[in-house]
Design brief:
Layout: E1 2-3, H1 4-7, E2 11-13, E3 20-30, E4 35-43, E5 73-77, E6 81-84, E7 89-91, E8 111-114, E9 119-128, E10 135-140, E11 143-146, E12 150-153, E13 158-160
Parallel strand pairs: 2-7, 8-13
Antiparallel strand pairs: 1-9, 2-3, 3-4, 4-5, 6-7, 8-9, 9-10, 10-11, 12-13
Length: 163
């Protein structure tokens, strides 16, 4: 299990060991199936952390760090991911990188609404299984929401089934 906030900022490595391809910016979620569908990363963003970036005990740049925006954003389907660990996201051989990422709504920071129309805070983090990409739980400003309650995701909000 890992959290979305732990994956952000990790280097994306090619399977051949040929060096980093970029830095993870976010994960795309297929809400209907409840899985991570894509890993989004910025080309060549490694090593371009602004002076205001904070480096944690693990040596990774925290979410408050600004990653340079000189590279373009790319995406790889989850099937192209070999492993996700505390140190990096490693891709399988011949992983297809999509130049123009598909439409995407980042779950982190997104407003949460119950299907009854009542607000349920905002998403602080998401736990997921790194082997299956299955979402396990969402952590909101109003408590934990089981991943099985997800209904839909759009520009305005993430909709979840009421308890």
């Amino acid at each position: 299990m890992m959290l979305f906030t732990e994956v952000r900022g990790l280097p994306v490595l090619a399977a051949d060991g040929g060096g980093p391809l970029g830095t993870v910016t976010s994960l795309t979620v297929d809400v209907v199936s409840g899985v991570v569908s894509h890993v989004r990363f910025r080309d060549g963003a490694l090593g371009r952390v602004g002076l205001s970036g904070r480096v944690g005990l693990s040596g990774r740049v925290g979410l408050s760090g600004r990653i340079g925006r000189s590279g373009r954003e790319r995406a790889v389907p989850w099937d192209a991911v070999d492993t996700v660990a505390a140190g990096a996201v490693r891709l399988r051989p011949a992983a297809p990188c999509e130049g123009a990422p598909r439409a995407h709504h980042d779950l982190l920071g997104h407003r949460v609404l119950l299907d009854t129309g009542t607000g349920h805070g905002t998403v602080l983090d998401v736990a997921f299984d790194t082997r299956t990409a299955r979402l396990l739980a969402l952590f909101t400003t109003r408590g934990e929401v089981p991943a099985g309650r997800l209904r839909g995701l759009g520009d305005y909000a993430l909709v979840v089934r009421a308890g």
